[in-house]
Amino acid sequence: MFANFLIGLREGLEAALVVGILVAYLVKSGHRDLLPRVWAGVGIAVVVSLAAGAALTYGPRGLSFEAQEAIGGVLSIVAVGFVTWMIFWMARTSRQLKGELEGRMNTAIIAGGASLTILATLAVGREGLETALFLWAAAQATGNSTQPLLGGALGIATAIVLGVLIYRGALRLDLGKFFRWTGAFLVVVAAGVLAYGVHDLQEAGILPGLNNLAFDVSDTIPPSSWYGTLLKGTFNFSPSTTWLELIVWVAYLVPVLTLFILSVRRPYPVASTPPSMPAHAAR
Q: What is the mean pLDDT of the chain?
């Protein structure tokens, strides 16, 4: 549940920061009348994300066991790909995010029409779809649909509160450290989801080695015990792990975590300030 709370918190805070930047820029540049277009885009993004989550949850029902496992395995791997890209993207652009978004806002304001709504939909919708996909994959991995969703919902709610406090200047948060630490933790979580996706594909008969176990510590760490449940819910740890799962877990975790640590220690270029937008520009 903690891992899903962290996913919801991180993705939700990213979305909240994006919305805060968009709103603050419109207010500061004298375009308060365009705020409804931004909120419309946010609303569309939320609806699309919820619809995606519902489709992932209810879509595969009624299919054969092998088909459900195959879909679950493929989507778990896709979720890991999205989250990995998000972690590195945020590590690379977190210090330039405000400048990039304000530059796009200038273009959208000049273009007029539905440009602002589309910009807000895409900016927030990306975070929402990533959250829906990864929370679904986490729910599949733990075999419990309630706790992952509850953890994710609590994380998103916390992120909204933090986003409002940051926007109003009531809270100062070292976002660089936040994204570095959560990014490193999510790499570990993603490794577990990837291993579980491989296990699903083994269950579906697509990948071999289902009965070739690297280790089985079920007697020492019973899946039904509180610590077994904690390890499963946090790191997707399986007491009985196949050789292929173990190989994939190590092959992902070691290089990705190493690259992430190197990327966050690398100095970032200073983002340029976007050109100012006159208040009388097209609305």
A: 82
